[in-house]
Design a protein that fits this description.
Helix content: 40-55%
Oligomer: single chain
Radius of gyration: 28 Å
Strand order of the largest sheet: 3-2-1-4-5-6-7
Distance between the termini: 54 Å
Number of helices: 31
Length: 689
């Protein structure tokens, strides 16, 4: 490392940023090496979080001095700051060969940790640990590796050695619980929280952490307990929002809606409360569409009044030039969004489109690595401010920015309110409006959103494709063979519903109860995790006259086990008004027909569009009476279920649901048409909308 850079890093480590800026500028003016002064300016620009400026200094250095370890090291650090760990890894691996500086081992080890390359991470972090026993990131990463190995005692030792302070105080045990939770040692973390609360039962920080851990680990009953204790201490809007999150995640949307109402009484423009309320609307029945639309607009207005738009630099307005497409999502991992998106991404024409991904989730799995394989333009942005993310999108010169989250938990709608791209689109996240006027289009299809049905309830212009937006992969469903229909052996129909319990409301239960009562010998298998929601659902069946001995209630399970469970049912019952999507497609891929009810509510029609694509639209109805007629016809000839199942799986596999090439072309055509419309509007001085 050069003396200039050593001095610069020394000033940074001492917190002397102004002196570091002055030193870098002076080094730049006096530079005779051809690279050192320019590199100093790149370093100081990164330190000041001016990553685009740093990139301007570094790009020519990478072209002319790529064999220089100091240049590669700064390139690696800039890539980490930009959320691009793939390129950072390559640069670190080059630089670390030329230095014994243990700090590089820690940086490379942490990069490997993000990429889930644990053996390589362990090798680096063990070298760094003796010098970094009090460095949070290094200790946390090494503890996570020990936890993966099952070495609990080692985890507890290095964490407790790092945390300073009085172990008889609640704060120490809270800090310990946080680190244990990050090691995925949930039970140990909750034990530490219990110790902390025994020392200080009204510790706000401890209760907030308890809520956070329980939400992440799906322990919603405990999360509600923590929220209620926080409300006992202070009846604030934020604490009511916490309670609503736990209630909604447990499927208790009416209760969650009431908690949000209390939050908004205290803070009418609380953006988090307004957004969660929009998310809840998709699961609730009985709220008029006009009132729902007003609630979406209340969020959009509050957000857009609070956020200024940014200025987009000029780029060539050419209808035919290659376009830069950005995807913003917290679900670029093993999640239904990726199940539908990855097949499009892998079939994109990369000669005509450059793809950029802004991941608001640090998860890395097989799906994430498939995105990595398509493009190196991957940015981890979960810890970035909205301003930083908007600036990066501007620096990347994105032409079309796609929101894949809408009002789900990891959304970045405030960034879209800044309008960092010329065209902004909502797709994949959920079937309803965002409420933002600064998102131009909502991408959907002609079945989910027929023309005229919801146009007046969308702040975005609705862009309709002829076929379903998205595609699934055959290999997701190849490992589990289809078995004979249970009705062939049993002589009666076994229904099932494996949708998320959050979608099971009174309308759904009434539909299912009428189905069961119409066929006295039939049974129903449903997935319902233990808790208050399960108790309420079972009580509703009893109230409607269904003997609960006819119900087989099962808990959450792995995907393979869940698919195997589909072999135990004859017909999958859909939910209403929020129908299935991936669940519906999965059932059909296992040869199981889906009985669905739809209306003029967008979220009730997701199953319908999939069933049409698979040739099963004869099982989707607008009334329960029509559905019951179908059920009776099938029950009268149970032997036909076996023949249907043996033929239907292959029919589904050959349908548009699994045609990645066709899905990608339709998606590209929609984006190109949006761009052409934009160019025409701009060149004729007419607004894009």
């Amino acid at each position: 490392m050069s003396q200039v850079l050593n001095k610069l890093y020394e000033l940074q480590n001492n917190g002397q940023i102004d002196a570091a800026v002055e030193f870098a500028q002076l080094a730049h003016m006096r530079d005779t090496s051809g690279w050192e002064g320019q590199l100093a300016m790149a370093v100081i620009s990164r330190m000041l979080r001016k990553n685009a400026v740093a990139n301007q200094y570094l790009q020519p250095l990478m072209e002319n001095y790529s064999d220089n370890p100091a240049v590669q090291l700064e390139w690696a650090r800039l890539q980490v700051a930009s959320g691009n760990f793939i390129d950072a890894r390559r640069a670190y691996e080059f630089a670390v060969q030329y230095t014994s500086d243990v700090s590089l081992q820690s940086e490379l080890g942490l990069t490997y940790m993000y990429l889930k390359e644990y053996d390589l991470a362990r090798r680096c972090l063990l070298k760094a640990y003796p010098s970094y026993k009090k460095q949070y990131n290094v200790v946390q990463a090494l503890a996570t590796l020990y936890a993966l190995d099952g070495n609990v005692s080692k985890v507890k030792k290095i964490l407790s050695d790092m945390i300073e302070g009085d172990r008889t105080k609640s704060a120490w045990h809270t800090a310990y619980a946080l680190m244990l939770a990050k090691c995925n040692m949930t039970n140990a973390a909750l034990d530490a929280i219990n110790v902390a609360l025994s020392l200080d039962p009204r510790s706000v920080g401890t209760l907030q952490l308890m809520h956070q851990i329980c939400m992440l680990k799906h322990r919603y009953e405990l999360a509600m307990q923590a929220s209620n204790k926080l409300l006992d201490i202070e009846k604030s809007a934020e604490n009511y929002v916490r309670l609503s999150e736990a209630q909604g995640s447990a499927g208790l949307y009416e209760q969650g809606f009431e908690s949000l109402a209390r939050a908004l009484e205290l803070e009418p423009c609380n953006l988090r409360a307004l957004s969660i309320r929009c998310f809840f609307l998709g699961y609730m029945d009985g709220i008029p569409k006009q009132r729902q639309y007003e609630m979406y607009c209340e969020y959009g207005k509050a957000l857009e009044n609070n956020v200024q738009t940014v200025e987009i630099s000029d780029r060539k307005l050419d209808k035919d030039r290659p376009l830069r497409i950005g995807f913003v999502s917290g679900d670029l991992c093993d999640h239904p969004v990726s199940h539908w998106l990855i097949g499009i991404v892998e079939n994109f024409d990369l000669q005509k489109y450059s793809l950029y991904f802004y991941s608001n989730n640090d998860a890395v799995d097989d799906y994430t690595r498939r995105y990595f394989a398509v493009t190196s333009n991957w940015r981890l942005v979960d810890r970035w401010s909205d301003q930083m993310l908007a600036q990066k999108i501007l620096d990347d010169e994105i032409d079309i920015l796609i929101d894949c989250s809408v009002h789900t938990g990891n959304n970045r709608l405030p960034v879209f309110a800044m309008r960092p791209a010329r065209i902004q689109v909502s797709a994949f996240g959920s079937p309803n409006t965002t409420g933002l006027t600064r998102i131009d289009y909502r991408l959907t299809d002609e079945v989910v959103d027929p023309e005229g049905m919801t146009d007046q309830f969308s702040t975005e212009k609705i862009w309709r494709t002829k076929s379903i937006v998205g595609v699934l992969e055959r290999k997701m469903y190849e490992n589990v063979p289809v078995q004979d229909a249970p009705a062939e052996k049993n002589g009666f129909i076994t229904f099932g519903s494996f949708n998320r319990s959050a979608k099971v409301n009174e309308s759904t239960i009434e539909f299912w109860a009428r189905v069961l009562l119409s066929l006295p010998n039939s049974r129903l298998r449903i997935i319902l995790p233990e808790g208050k929601k399960r108790d309420e659902v079972l009580a509703s069946f009893v109230r409607l006259g269904v003997d609960i001995s006819r119900l087989d209630v099962i808990g959450l399970m792995s995907r393979v086990n869940y698919m195997e469970q589909l072999n135990t049912i004859d017909i999958h019952l859909d939910t209403f008004p929020y129908s299935g999507s991936t669940t519906t497609a999965t059932a059909m891929s296992m040869g199981v027909p889906v009985l669905s009810i739809y209306s003029d509510i967008t979220q009730s029609r997701a199953s319908l569009t999939m069933m049409k694509a698979a040739g099963l639209d004869g099982w989707a109805f607008q009334t329960v009476d029509e559905a019951l007629t179908k059920v009776r016809e099938v029950a009268a000839n149970p032997e036909q279920m076996g023949e249907f199942r043996r033929n239907f799986r292959e029919s589904v596999r050959q349908s548009r649901l699994f045609d990645g090439e066709a899905a990608a072309r339709e998606f590209e055509e929609a984006l190109r048409a949006m761009w052409e419309r934009y160019v025409e509007a701009e060149t004729s001085d007419v607004g894009v909308r």
